[in-house]
Design a protein that fits this description.
Layout: E1 4-10, E2 16-24, H1 29-43, E3 47-58, H2 60-76, E4 79-83, H3 87-95, H4 108-111
Parallel strand pairs: 2-3, 3-4
Antiparallel strand pairs: 1-2
Helix pairs in contact: 1-2
């Protein structure tokens, strides 16, 4: 089980960015889920960006937390964006059939620079 650090910041355009670093597994997803849900319900941003640039590992629990955030964002009318997933994370989302739901390109090399 690993460690993860989540920080939340507001961009100049009003979007909320949740920067995630480390591993997303059973030991760490509770903090991610809490950060996503509390920010969505408390701030109600137009756009929430989850930056996965420095996520080194993600298992099914991490995927579940992202899906929870995605669903909660839809309920509040917030656009939910995954930014810069690593090749490993992108592969996990593609294998589970969720890359398209999150609006990620099918080629993981394209996902590195994808910014909607």
């Amino acid at each position: 089980m690993g460690e993860a650090v989540m920080t939340t910041r507001r961009q100049a355009d009003g979007a909320i960015v949740v920067d995630v670093r480390g591993t997303l597994d059973a030991a760490t997803v509770g903090a991610l889920r809490q950060a996503l849900l509390s920010t969505l319900h408390g701030e109600r941003p137009r756009t929430m960006i989850v930056d996965l640039t420095f996520v080194t590992f993600m298992d099914s629990m991490g995927i579940g937390a992202l899906v929870t955030g995605y669903n909660a964002a839809r309920e509040t009318g917030t656009r939910f964006v995954l930014r810069n997933p690593s090749e490993f994370v992108h592969r996990q989302l593609r294998v589970t059939g969720l890359a398209e739901m999150f609006g990620l390109p099918s080629d993981p090399r394209s996902a590195q620079t994808y910014t909607p």
